[in-house]
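Anyone opening a protein record will find just a pair of labelled lines. A complete record is shown below as an example.
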Amino acid sequence: MIRPDGRKAAELRPVKMTADFIGTADGSVLVELGRTRVVCTATLQAGVPRWLQGRGTGWVTAEYGMLPASAGRRMRRDGPWGVDSRGTEIRRLIGRALRAVVDLAALGENTLIVDCDVLEADGGTRTAAITGGWVALARAVDRARADGRLVTDAEPIADRATAVSCGLVDGEARLDLAYEEDSAAEVDMNVAMTPAGRLIEVQATGEGTTFTEDQMVRLVRLAHQGCKRLAEAQAGARRKRRRRGGRRRGAGGSP
């Protein structure tokens, strides 16, 4: 069956990751999956939440937001008028996924904050945020270790966190759903996992219908194929030579 954009069922949208998209961040990347574009930045800060103080361990947390015009109609920003409950659920998902692959003890009492901002949404923003968030986080750790702000003998990045959407559309299992397919899917699934296939989180919903265990397993296996390809793009983005330039720390403004 031909998909709206001509892809095969097990084919990702074109993937592009631009490292150091925000030159002043500890780590950053622009991740693009087709028309979905998300900027992820990561910041290492000294100190941890009060409930972790004195335990010698670090913390990873995330923020997520969509720019007002990212979905084609203007959305309100979070503020005094209320908090976006969808955004809250997604930022918790991103934080859980990234903590699963970080050795918090190796961070010491430091916090990594990953900010994910959707520039344009065409399906799969939460999974793109996890995939790009890992790149930003890993580059922030590499930079902090290189400049002496993070001193540790252990490698804080224990594994890679990748994520992708998939689902059943017209009875067919498809990978990396764009919005047109996602809105028509009988089953919608988001899978976060390591490149080796170890599951971090699975979110699966029957949209007005039910689905079988066999269908769920088939979708997870399809997601694994996509995550392995995304992991290759992540590895290339993490290794990219850091660009010179950007504001130096202590050269004006807050770090």
